Amino acid sequence: MNTAFREKLKDKQRIVIKIGSSSLTHPDTGYLDLIKLEVLVREISDLRNQGKDVILVSSGAIMVGSKTMGYDRKPSKMAQKQACAAIGQAKLMMIYQKLFAEYNQVASQILMTKHTILNNLNRLNAKNTFEELLRMGAIPIVNENDTISTYEIEFGDNDTLSAVVSAMVGADLLILLSDIDGLFTDDPHKNPEAKFIDVVEELDEHLLSMGKGSTGSNVGTGGMATKLTAAEIASAAGTDMIIANGADFHVIHKIMQGRAYGTLFLSHKKNDFYVLDFLERIL
């Protein structure tokens, strides 16, 4: 039965891919892993060549900015984080646009805040922008606007944002790539008996309570709890979701081929689901 679920991934047409900071950088230095970035861009470009819509939600602005300015690690002061985000976001987009151009793709930037989501007019404008960019064949690259907002820096490493974007644009599939293989029955770093969960057919309270506050990474800010929140939003909006390891971005085409990578969360669209109501409870 699980194989049948995976086979359906081949037919997904609108895909949101979220990349965590730890998946973009060298673990020893914190600098961007340019080889991995090139693989990511090639994978996304190939999905576009198949006629699929792709939105990339990319973390990394603060990390890139802090390394550019000579910090050994992410700064702790809010003003420093915001300044590094301003520097890092521009540099990150420059690299993305250069790499995507090599594959004849056009990258665009959308920066969002909590108010973009909660304000009706802002949310409608954002949705219309996404739709027009996708109609043009561009690849929207989304991040939280850390430069002007203090809230989003603690938002959960873009996990929740990627689910909100998926709901907003009616995505078929959300792929969360981070430094974990997927969902386990317990923390596999602490419990060798923890079992990997291949498919979650229904996200119940027991599974939601399994979320931990940390992935073990000192780069990203999101943990399993934020990923399960993302799964809850995506499922209710009618979007299937996968949590997979971003150590090798070739995993993207393997997932899209229906191969068994990561944990697949099946969607259960709620007719009365309204993303704003849900977000007002958690933001």
From TrEMBL:
ATP binds at K18, S178, D179, T221, G222, G223, M224, A225, T226, K227. Residues 13-245 form the Aspartate/glutamate/uridylate kinase domain. One of its GO terms (biological process) is L-proline biosynthetic process. It is found in: Cytoplasm. Belongs to the glutamate 5-kinase family. It catalyses: L-glutamate + ATP = L-glutamyl 5-phosphate + ADP. Keywords: Amino-acid biosynthesis, ATP-binding, Cytoplasm, Kinase, Nucleotide-binding, Proline biosynthesis, Transferase. It is an enzyme of class 2 (transferase). Its EC number is 2.7.2.11. InterPro entries: AceGlu_kinase-like_sf, Asp/Glu/Uridylate_kinase, G5K_ProB, Glu/AcGlu_kinase, Glu_5kinase, Glu_5kinase/COase_Synthase, Glutamate_5-kinase_CS. GO terms for cellular component: cytosol. This is Glutamate 5-kinase. It comes from Blautia faecicola. Pathway: Amino-acid biosynthesis; L-proline biosynthesis; L-glutamate 5-semialdehyde from L-glutamate: step 1/2. PROSITE patterns: GLUTAMATE_5_KINASE. One of its GO terms (molecular function) is glutamate 5-kinase activity. Catalyzes the transfer of a phosphate group to glutamate to form L-glutamate 5-phosphate. Substrate binds at S59, D146, N158. It holds the Pfam family AA_kinase.
